[in-house]
Write a structure and sequence with these properties.
about 50% strand, three-stranded antiparallel beta sheet, mainly beta, seven-stranded antiparallel beta sheet, about 0% helix, about 130 residues, globular
């Protein structure tokens, strides 16, 4: 999540990017893994209704973006840390969860339009 912490009511430096946990399976028991990443946003690279990309320190960035087949969240940093989640639909790949270096790589193909993972921006950026 991007959390408003700067007090200006918009995505900006001083806000916080937080990643809590991730499911390690698509069926119960999910065995949630703890990522526990919290970084202060130092700059906003892109802010639109479909893409919010922020810098969160040296060689680290986070992005929430939408495209024709779904939405995705990406976090990467200079220590080879990567968290990627995607919800797709329309009979293709419905869900992807990747976390490195925890070596979690899940992919689920679903024939219904109901992803397990839900990636969304609660409020879109306007520019």
């Amino acid at each position: 999540a991007y959390y408003e912490a700067s007090g200006d009511g918009q995505l900006s430096a001083g806000d916080v990017m937080v990643i809590g946990s991730y499911p390690a399976a698509f069926e119960p028991p999910y065995d949630f893994g703890d990522v526990s990443i919290a970084r202060t946003i130092v700059g906003v690279r892109t802010c639109s209704a479909t893409d919010a990309t922020v810098a969160v320190g040296e060689l680290a960035l986070s992005e929430i973006f939408a495209y024709t087949a779904g939405q995705a969240f990406l976090y990467v940093d200079g220590t080879a840390r990567l968290v990627f989640t995607e919800d797709g639909f329309a009979g293709g790949v419905a869900d992807i969860i990747s976390v490195y270096p925890e070596n979690v790589a899940l992919e689920r193909t679903d024939t219904i339009d109901q992803p397990f993972v839900d990636v969304a921006m609660s409020t879109g950026c306007t520019g």
